[in-house]
Design goal:
Shape of chain B: globular
Radius of gyration of chain B: 20 Å
Organism (chain A): Chitinophaga japonensis (Flexibacter japonensis)
Order of helices and strands of chain B: HEEEEEEEEEEEEHEHEEE
Number of strands of chain B: 16
Structural class of chain B: mainly beta
CATH class of the largest domain in chain A: Mainly Beta
CATH architecture of the largest domain in chain B: Sandwich
CATH topology of the largest domain in chain B: Immunoglobulin-like
Number of helices of chain B: 3
Helix content of chain A: under 10%
GO cellular component, one term (chain A): cell outer membrane
Strand content of chain A: over 45%
CATH topology of the largest domain in chain A: Maltoporin, Chain A
CATH superfamily of the largest domain in chain A: TonB-dependent receptor, beta-barrel domain
Low-confidence stretches of chain B: 1-6
Distance between the termini of chain A: 59 Å
Largest sheet of chain B: 9 strands, mixed
Largest sheet of chain A: 22 strands, antiparallel, barrel
Oligomer: heterodimer
InterPro entries (chain B): DUF4249
Mean pLDDT of chain A: 89
Strand order of the largest sheet of chain B: 14-8-7-4-5-6-3-2-15
Shape of chain A: globular
InterPro entries (chain A): Beta-barrel_TonB_sf, CarboxyPept-like_regulatory, Plug_dom, Plug_dom_sf, TonB-dep_rcpt-like
Helix content of chain B: 10-25%
Pfam families (chain B): DUF4249
Largest interface: A-B, 92 and 91 residues
CATH architecture of the largest domain in chain A: Beta Barrel
Low-confidence stretches of chain A: 111-117
Chain lengths: ~800, ~290
């Protein structure tokens, strides 16, 4: 395997070299202009800024740190720097040698101007990549809110190819993938639970978020570890010009962020925090069992950056979030993510850029129960607890080598070390011995080396191709279990187990993942793109409920759980209307997925040492078409996305071994987002969603047993029905205060679910509570009424 | 345990907005299968076994059609005795007479059903069961109760038998034993193997004999029952209880419950749904005064 990998790598390198040599032969004397692009007002580095030689198609875009490098023939050039929402800037450079050029762009005074000049190079029609959606915080803020709050995860659900199983569900589904197949990165640290309050709010504080990139297909070789998507969220650097405050007061929670320079122009910081206060507001009204009820969440996001010198910048960022829930002293539960990232940007030469990221990420939960407050005098006191966590340490040096205006190389290595403590339960009762159940710790090392070559030989054609070698090692110290093969769908029986020492290899998996995206420009405004990517996944969230709970554990691939492997093909057509009036795209995708995780009937996923015996490998396929049109300029802006798709799986032992629809399949999914600015101070936003109901398994008969009515599905086919279609309209109205000296305030009034639709989340069968001889099908709507929200946002 | 607490949490979060209503569904008529409802206990007196056809629509309120022409025999494998069950008055019955009991703790039982020319068999073992020491109750006003329902909240006090893992099915009744109220399953004094051995049943189990949405009222009688379970019967009860409590944000998909009756007829084609289980049982009752 390794040998074959080496051979492939060698071939690829040789190919790269040949292309480069061809390039070199034609070269005349060339020099490089490079530097950073920042926001004039607050010094934030700007991502994806178009940098081009005016009047030509030669150009590039800034990377995630605002760095660009463009190699041009010696002589005088007009460079244009542009981005939507910013006043475009032209600079004349006279290249007689390599040059460093930092640029500060000014926000265009008005989004209202009929036509805002925007660069070409960040437009989808001109980029190489396909299946990528980028949203910056300004766009997210325009969306109607849920209870007055801007929400990162809700905003991506308006994009094509992204769905969710229902309102308040934890997680999202991309192109027919399961919720655990999304790699969610916050400043490059992976997160394992992305929502607060079981799914109603996402854990990202919008005041600290700069932008997000959602990659649904055509993955660059740099990304791996999940099969369906990468949600790459970047935090703000913090204003390096002046101290400022932003925040908001809403009906569910409030936010406050402080940012400012540590040293003007050179270094800055941001600290942002949120806390919900439903519990505080309700406290006076609670008594008895409800007194002392705890129900809140908080999160703190912080980041600092230090420009050490022209070629070195250091970033330190971290996140801490927690959901807390409890009754008196007797029930206490909490869970959350903690992350930390340190990054070092180094410019070796004006053509070689390094970003070295090291990160730490932890997800843990803890449950505690006691009986102190309501035990009777003669009863023994009792306490029990249950804890679980995942910890990751990662390091990722990544290099970009800007060889010429036509060639660049991206390469690097990555390593993540995982420790899982799947569960430890302890309990004590007065007069008895402490009892402890502790599941074995698990360890794994995920590593990768990758290379991508981006090649744009002429203004018609471009290609990015590369390969990622992934190695996954399931390591000791731990116990490996071996199970028998049995009737598919039944619990497997343990036949053997073996102890392994620290860092001893229990099972290794090695993959070659080819990646390629190509673009052909038909004319200035039309392009077609195609991509293929193989992706692998070594971490799996075990959940057999409608939506994962915060207690659903993640498990690494083991000798029993094979890694997931997906192959995705995409083909897209992209159009950009003249003067950038609007852009539109149509993409089709086809994806196969191997070794997705499924469960036997009646699987036991909690505190179960032999959990692997209850898992089934499943194969999946998904395909669809996504249509998207976006208008970013003018008084009315917004986008429309429509997805027609299907996602299915086949598991031996389930649904008669035939293909069945995934729980998250949505045939149609339509999203309309529009914002109308009436004046400088007022605007109205609307969001409409229509989606086919998700598949469900319905009982077609009942069994009378021990005074129960047990629902039974005599077809034995899973997901053979659908819930009613989902649709909803949201509105929000923003009123900006008059600009005072520094204080800028705005009121956001929002209505969620305007026509109070009772969208079904699940349908279940039960005996009527008052009359058990009456049986009924019950629809549960998580949000069954109109939800108003008011928030006051401010900036100082 | 997880489920119980999460339901409360969810109810609190979604309480302001969530709603449930009954709806009509257009579902194709299912295929009907024979269903065995056989649970033998160590209680003295007659034991009964029901054999019905499944009703081919969940919401069809007609009682399940009764099958009267099967031959059902229970064998006490340990004592090598056989009890023929005879059909009368809607069920198959056997009466050992007086205060005799056919169920004995520690004995293995085999049930044999002959129906439409094919024979089905399953076995189960009667495990030990602890006594229920007492039932207590407290009055809560609507404001004081988590569920917001006013009434009497009863607790059951019992202690797991020390040594080894014990599996239980706990059921409560309102007023009389034809009026099922709540069902729970437990391992030892809590929910997991290897923990809470010899413990007093923990809070959620104590409190679980009250339906929070419908607490007891003055004059009502609370009846609690603990039934011992073998491991396979425990898995069956766990699946049924989870299935019947499957609403909510973390709803489980409907999974059919596998029967334990095996068709031993060569080339036998029929399926017999349901379950044959055995238990030792202990009861306690108390009237709310």
């Amino acid at each position: 395997m390794i040998k074959r990998m080496k051979k492939h790598l060698f071939l690829l390198m040789s190919l790269g070299c040949i292309l480069l040599q061809v390039q070199a032969l034609k070269a005349q004397q060339r020099f490089t202009v490079s530097g950073y692009v920042k926001d004039e007002q607050n010094g934030e580095s700007l991502i994806g800024i178009s940098v081009s030689k005016a009047g030509t198609s030669i150009g590039t875009v800034t990377n995630e740190y605002g760095f660009y490098s463009l190699t041009l023939p010696a002589g005088e050039h007009q460079l244009q720097f542009s981005y939507i929402g910013y006043a475009s800037q032209q600079k004349t450079v006279n290249l007689t040698g390599n040059q460093h050029l930092d640029i500060k762009l000014e926000k265009s005074s008005s989004q209202l101007s009929e036509v805002v000049v925007s660069g070409k190079h960040e437009k989808a029609v001109n980029t190489l990549s396909t299946s990528i959606n980028r949203l910056d915080i300004a766009q997210m803020k325009k969306l109607p809110t849920f209870l007055g709050e801007v929400d990162v995860l809700r905003s991506i659900q308006t994009l094509p190819g992204v769905t969710t199983v229902g309102e308040g569900a934890n997680g999202f589904n991309v192109r027919g993938g399961a919720t655990d197949e999304n790699l969610i990165l916050l400043d490059e640290a992976p997160l394992y639970n992305s929502t607060h309050m079981l799914g109603f709010f996402s854990i990202f504080n919008p005041d600290a978020v700069k932008s997000l990139n959602l990659i649904k297909g055509g993955f660059p070789a740099e990304y791996g570890g999940r099969t369906s998507s990468v949600l790459d969220i970047r935090m703000k650097d913090g204003d390096n010009q002046r101290l400022g405050l932003t925040g908001g007061i809403g009906n569910i929670f409030s936010r406050l962020a402080v940012e400012g320079p540590i040293k003007k122009d050179e270094s800055s910081f941001i600290v942002a925090a949120r806390r919900s206060y439903i519990d505080v507001l309700m406290k006076p009204f609670l008594s008895g069992d409800m007194a002392d009820t705890k129900l809140y969440f908080y999160d703190i996001t912080a980041k600092a950056n230090f420009k050490l010198n022209r070629n070195n910048t250091l970033f330190v960022s971290g996140y801490l979030g927690r959901d807390v829930f409890g009754f008196g002293g007797d029930v206490n539960m909490n869970w959350g993510n903690t992350t930390g990232t340190v990054r070092w940007n180094h410019v070796f030469s004006n053509r070689l850029f390094l970003n070295l990221t090291t990160f730490y990420s932890k997800y843990d939960y803890s449950l505690k129960f006691g009986n102190e407050s309501d035990k009777e005098a003669n009863e023994p006191s009792q306490n029990s607890s249950w804890t679980s966590n995942i910890i990751n340490y990662g390091v990722k040096p990544s290099f970009t080598y800007y060889l010429s205006s036509k060639n660049s190389l991206h390469f690097g290595v990555q390593g993540i070390y995982y420790t899982f403590k799947p569960g430890k339960g302890t309990g004590t009762q007065e007069g008895t011995e402490e009892s402890v159940v502790e599941l074995n710790d698990q360890h794994a090392l995920e590593s990768a080396v990758y290379l991508d070559h981006e090649y744009k030989p002429n203004n018609k054609f471009g290609v990015q191709y590369g390969v990622r070698f992934s190695a996954y090692q399931y390591l000791g110290k731990g116990t490996a279990y071996y199970y028998n093969d049995t009737t598919p769908g039944a619990r497997r029986r343990l036949v053997d187990s073996k102890e392994y020492g620290t860092n001893e290899l229990i099972k290794g998996y090695y993959y070659i993942e080819p990646r390629i995206s190509a673009k052909y420009t038909i004319s200035d405004n039309h392009a077609v793109k195609a991509a293929y990517a193989r992706t692998t996944q070594f971490m799996h969230q075990l959940s057999n409920t409608a939506s994962p709970t915060p207690l659903d554990i993640w498990t690494p691939s083991t000798n029993n759980i094979e890694p997931q492997v997906a192959d995705q093909y995409t083909l897209g057509y992209f159009y950009n209307a003249p003067s950038n009036l609007f852009e539109a795209s149509a993409e089709v995708f086809y994806k196969t997925m191997d070794h997705q995780v499924d469960y036997i009937d009646n699987a036991n996923l909690q505190l179960n040492q032999y959990i692997e015996a209850d898992l089934l490998p499943s194969e999946g396929r998904a395909y669809g078409i996504e249509l998207y049109a976006k208008k970013e300029v003018g008084k009315t802006t917004g986008w429309v996305s429509y997805t027609l798709s299907r996602t299915e799986r086949k598991t031996q032992g389930i649904s008669q071994n035939e293909w069945f629809l995934n729980r998250y399949d949505r045939t149609h999914n339509l999203n309309l987002v529009a914002t109308r600015e009436f004046s400088k101070r007022t605007s109205l936003s609307a969001n409409f969603v229509y989606a086919s109901g998700t598949p469900a398994t319905f009982a077609d008969s009942r069994l009378e047993y021990q005074d129960w009515d047990i629902p039974y599905n005599s077809t034995d086919k899973r997901n053979n029905y659908r819930l009613p279609a989902f649709h909803r309209l949201d509105l929000s109205f923003t009123l900006k205060g008059r600009q005072k000296k520094r204080w800028q305030g705005e009121w956001v009034f929002s209505l969620y679910n305007v026509y109070a639709r009772r969208n079904a989340y699940t349908i279940y069968f039960q005996q009527n509570e008052d009359d058990p001889n009456k049986r009924e099908a019950v629809r549960l709507s998580i949000i069954g009424s109109i939800m108003p929200g008011i928030t006051y946002n401010f900036k100082w | 345990m997880k489920h119980i607490r999460f339901s409360i949490l969810l109810a609190m979060i979604a309480g302001f907005t969530a709603c449930e209503d009954t709806i009509d569904l257009d579902i194709a008529t299912g295929k009907s299968y024979p269903v065995l409802d056989a649970w033998i206990t160590d209680e003295a007196g007659p034991q009964e076994i029901r054999l019905t056809q499944s009703v081919t629509s969940y919401t069809d309120n007609t009682p399940a059609p009764i099958i009267s022409d099967a031959v059902i025999t229970l064998e006490d494998v340990t004592a090598d005795r056989s009890y023929p069950f005879a059909f009368s008055d809607g069920a198959y019955r056997y009466d050992p007479g007086g205060d005799q009991s056919i169920g004995v703790v520690g004995h293995v039982y085999k049930l044999r059903v002959e129906y439409k020319g094919e024979t089905f068999e399953a076995t189960d073992t009667i495990k030990r069961v602890p006594v229920i020491d007492s039932i207590s109750y407290k009055f809560k006003t609507a404001e004081d109760a988590q569920s917001g329902e006013e009434g009497y909240y009863a607790d059951m006090h019992a202690k797991d038998i020390a040594g080894g893992d014990d599996y239980y099915w706990i059921r409560s009744y309102r007023n009389d034993r034809s009026n099922r109220n709540t069902d729970m399953y437990a391992i030892n004094g809590a929910f997991n193997e290897g923990v809470a051995d010899g413990w007093n049943f923990i809070d959620p189990l104590q409190e679980g004999i009250t339906d929070e949405d419908k607490p007891y009222q003055q004059g009502e009688k609370v009846i609690a029952r603990i039934a011992s379970l073998s491991k396979p019967s425990y898995e069956f009860i766990r699946q049924v209880v989870d299935q019947l409590d499957s609403g909510g944000l973390f709803a489980r998909v409907l999974e059919n419950i596998r029967p334990n009756m095996v068709n031993i007829t060569p080339n036998g084609k029929q399926k017999l749904l349901g379950w044959f289980g055995t238990s030792a049982v202990s009861f306690k009752e108390r009237t709310i005064e």
